Amino acid sequence: MTPLAELNLRTARLHLRPLAAGDEADLFAIFGDPQVMRYWSTPPWQGLDDAVAAIERDRRTLAGRQDLRLGVVLHAGEAAGRLVGTVSLFRIDASNRRAEIGYALARSQQGSGLMHEALQALVATAFDHTPGAPFDDLALHRLEADADPRNAASCRTLQRLGFLREGLLRERWQVGGELSDSAWYGLLRPDWLASRASAAQPAG
User: Would you say the pTM of this structure is higher than 0.90?
Assistant: First the structure.
């Protein structure tokens, strides 16, 4: 299987790759932005040291196959080569064949469909049971996501991917003294496969 530290995914507009030295400024521009972090479960980062620590933490978790976070890098345009977001697969539960996804996108790129494109690639990789695929040993059956129900754009992104809202957890997070709810979403691999097969059918 592909070591997670060497995992690279490519889409029409994006290169998804592990975070690396040199990404600190771009990473802090995302996670230090109060508007990007408005509905996050932690406060905005306070400085570049937070980005340095995150990259080092990712290096350890990738080596141990505990969590996966990939930087979202643009192929072309004014921001070509810049890291503009992240997608994550974490809380991997091998015994129950499930994991949680997370994502963040720079404010300047929001509304462009880039996150949908990035998450499509992440979900396809997570659910790929082909021998030698990055997660073939886990044979993941279910993906989960936690979104603040006030974050309509994030909820729409999940729904476009096929995630179903399965419940509401009231006042689950407290960040900066503010309590917020969690909308809980789930996607099952059989449903994802059926949706892909349906989309591939020629119009009749």
Answer: yes
